[in-house]
């Protein structure tokens, strides 16, 4: 009887320990993200699912943005946006179109291990130190990047 009770007690403790170590996978509406970023609040959306079309075009974002391990369910539009801080999109999934045309990355831009299911557009303005390795593209993609007066065209 004591051995059975001890085993039953260990199982919930083990499950609680697993839950503490799991990432915070929360669902956030695109409109909530837009409101926070436009208000200048910290853009901390790691381990989230963004529901809805996200439109952060033509903004100047002062601080860093964090969208690591984020699942974008619909399209994202960052066209003509200036990122003054780092832009973190590592291990993320873009399930709709991803528009970064004419965006300016003044800080580092991280897109490692991200997947693009829809059309992906990265062309136009300056990109600082950028990390685009181990990407997966399943739709049409356009990479034409201008940096410091030179035109880089990446055929991916």
Largest beta sheet, briefly?
6 strands, parallel
Helix content: 10-25%
Q: List segments where confidence is low: pLDDT < 50 over at least 5 consecutive residues.
A: 9-22, 148-155
Alpha carbon gyration radius: 19 Å
Number of helices in the DSSP assignment: 2
Q: Strands of the largest sheet, in order across it?
A: 1-3-7-11-15-18
* Oligomerization: single chain
Can you tell me the overall shape?
globular
Number of domains: 1
Report the order of strands and helices.
Answer: HEHEEEEEEEEEEEEEEEEEEE
What is the percentage of strand-forming residues?
A: 25-35%
Query: For the terminal residues, how far apart are their CA atoms?
Result: 64 Å
Number of DSSP strands? 20
Structural class: alpha/beta
Question: What does the model show?
Answer:
By secondary structure, the chain is α/β, with parallel strands linked by helices. It has one domain (26-153). Helix content is 19%, strand content 34%. It has two helices and 20 strands. It has helices at residues 2-21, 30-38, and strands at residues 26-29, 43-44, 48-51, 54-55, 60-61, 65-66, 71-72, 76-77, 82-83, 87-88, 93-94, 98-99, 104-105, 109-110, 115-116, 120-123, 130-131, 136-137, 141-147, 150-153. A six-stranded parallel β-sheet has the order 1-3-7-11-15-18. Strands 4-8-12-16-19-20 form a six-stranded mixed β-sheet. It has a five-stranded parallel β-sheet with strand order 2-6-10-14-17. The longest helix is centred in the first third of the chain and has 20 residues, at 2-21. It starts with a helix and ends with a strand. 26% of the residues are buried.
């Amino acid at each position: 009887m004591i051995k059975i009770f001890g085993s039953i007690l260990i199982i919930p403790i083990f499950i609680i320990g697993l839950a503490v170590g799991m990432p915070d996978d929360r669902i956030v509406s695109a409109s909530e993200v837009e409101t926070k970023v436009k208000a200048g609040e910290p853009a901390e959306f790691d381990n989230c699912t963004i529901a809805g079309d996200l439109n952060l075009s033509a903004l100047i974002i002062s601080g860093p943005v964090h969208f690591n391990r984020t699942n974008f369910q619909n399209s994202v539009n960052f066209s003509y946006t200036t990122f003054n801080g780092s832009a973190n999109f590592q291990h993320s999934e873009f399930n709709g179109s991803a528009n970064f045309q004419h965006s300016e990355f003044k800080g580092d831009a991280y897109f490692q291990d991200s997947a693009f299911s829809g059309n992906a557009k990265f062309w136009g303005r300056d990109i600082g130190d950028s990390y685009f390795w181990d990407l997966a593209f399943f739709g049409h993609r356009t990479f034409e990047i201008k940096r410091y007066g030179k035109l880089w065209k990446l055929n991916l």
